[in-house]
Amino acid sequence: xxxxPQTSKQKIGPVTKICCIGAGYVGGPTMAxxxxxxxxxxxxxxxxxxxxxxxxxxDVLPIYEPGLNEVVKECRGRNLTFTTAVDESIRGxxxxxxxxxxxxxxxxxxxxxxxxxxxxxxxARKIAEVSxxxxxxxxxxxxxxxxxxxxxxxxxxxxxxASFDVLSNPEFLAEGTAIEDLLEPDRxxxxxxxxxxxxxxVDVYANWVPRERLLTTNLWSSELSxxxxxxxxxxxxxSINAISALCEATEADVDEVALAIGTDSRxxxxxxxxxxxxxxxxxxxxxxxxxYLCEYFGLPEAAEYWEQVVKMNxxxxxxxxxxxxxxxxxxxxxxxxxxxxxAFKKDTNDTRESAAIYVCRDLxxxxxxxxxxxxxxxxxQIHRDLTEAILASGVDANTCDALLxxxxxxxxxxxxxxxxxxxxxxxxxxxxxxxxxxxxxHASMKKPAFIFDGRNTLKKLSLDDLGFRYFGIGF
Length: 475
Ligand SMILES: NC(=O)c1ccc[n+]([C@@H]2O[C@H](COP(=O)([O-])OP(=O)(O)OC[C@H]3O[C@@H](n4cnc5c(N)ncnc54)[C@H](O)[C@@H]3O)[C@@H](O)[C@H]2O)c1
Known about the structure:
Strand order of the largest sheet: 3-2-1-4-5-6-7-8
Strand content: 5-15%
Distance between the termini: 49 Å
Shape: globular
Bound molecules: nicotinamide-adenine-dinucleotide
Number of strands: 14
Number of helices: 18
Helix content: 40-55%
Structural class: alpha/beta
Radius of gyration: 24 Å
């Protein structure tokens, strides 16, 4: 593959004005951190979603992330602005980050696998349309390798005489620990072709990140590294989950196996926690994207290899539901099941691809009555997610509405959701669940009282001694 020769001939000065397109889970926290650590830089975060911008300007931010409120409060109105004034914010900036969503395509060529780059393309067109002078455009979104080529081509169609350098700077933060991850990243990756442009971004991060953690690469390595990092992480989860199924069949204990292999320094302990399955907006979409890239470049074996990581994850979710149904005497019809947690993991209100959606959907299709409690996810979000999942499984809209009306209740505490329930299904590892009063909860439940712990969060509490029938993952 040939390298694109475009490099900047422009003299690039220090960055003083940044615009970020996309005020989501990445754009919001990342820009808040840059504003905090670089008080000399004016940071504007723009979005076409007016309601989202209004929330960023209110006391209740649109995303829940520990420590985020404090950072936003410190910087908002000083050098951090959230606005819908897209054109003028782009025009005024020396550096423009693109941090918009890149979901899996649901239609046309590559449907179900390829990344939908429509929002990226719209951003590139907008930047080309309104820019004057020189700008550094930074891909912050996770993108398929070679996307920068398309971005550069679109930018070169500008008619205002503007010039551009394109950098890739993928974000490695994890939801729930975004502020920690941004404060002390393992590394920051910057890929590009123009040394001056790379250095301009290096200088921004160097305000708080040690220089040795600022890795610079070529554009394509940087784009591909982000997809690869997510694929490797998800692969570890699917690998230990595959072993959890074997543990349940053999009386081995998956946590003991994970400890035994995780203490091998070549393997390491992280991302070896067996669970009901990984979720979140990134892992599945990024692996599918990698699968699509492998297919596109004529590598079906490599595509199949990575696709298995996603298949294993689907198996883990359906296995969890099967275990509940079988254990509850082969039927959950009309039985109340308390669902603890709906977010894809603790410390976030994000439910995208949460395992809870699929577990709840399958339990509802088995006619269970669900009482769902999550400390951060709204009732509206739960209804939206379940509606979408049930409709996608082929159920018609009227039946879906009726099912949600009669069989789903949103509870305001884990105790109230468990009252009169046959079973508790713990699906998100929120800390408060381990602190619940299980003696009282047991007394309020139907007997025998079952707990299916999809995160092994309650394993150490010896709940069998309180009279529960306790089932975790992988033992
Ligand atoms: N969420 C994560 O944990 C995470 C971590 C690392 C990387 N990423 C990647 O970062 C990117 C953004 O993810 P996210 O979770 O922040 O998405 P998000 O959906 O939370 O936010 C994206 C925002 O972009 C806005 N937007 C879309 N098109 C726009 C346009 N043309 N002009 C202005 N605004 C526009 C949307 O309104 C939305 O508010 C994705 O590529 C994702 O893969 C996400």
